[in-house]
Specification:
Layout (H helix, E strand, L loop, with lengths): L1 E6 L4 H29 L3 H37 L2 E6 L6
Antiparallel strand pairs: 1-2
Helix pairs in contact: 1-2
């Protein structure tokens, strides 16, 4: 049995926190590549500093982006009724 659900509001602070954590993880994933650029590049000092700061910068950008994105979604959802998505009951017993 499927039902249609409607997402009409996203809590901006919660969305900012989740986005910040996800972007911070993305920054950690980028660190090895930035370190390789620091090792093999001419401007090793600048690349090394950026590699250290990248996770923090990514997390801050993700938090701000998530916060703004959720607030904008809430505004648009008021005009349009929000996103609709289909859900179904899990019958696998897992």
């Amino acid at each position: 049995m499927t039902t249609i659900k409607r997402l009409t509001r996203v809590t901006p602070l919660r969305a900012g926190i989740v986005s910040g954590i996800l972007y911070g993880i993305a920054g950690l994933i980028a660190v090895p590549f930035l370190l390789m650029a620091a090792i093999f590049g001419r401007d090793a000092g600048g690349a090394l500093a950026f590699a250290i700061l990248a996770p923090v910068l990514y997390a801050v950008a993700g938090f701000i982006g998530g916060l703004i994105g959720a607030a904008l979604y809430n505004l648009v959802a008021k005009w349009t009724g929000g996103l609709e998505f289909e859900v179904s009951d899990d019958t696998t017993g897992v």
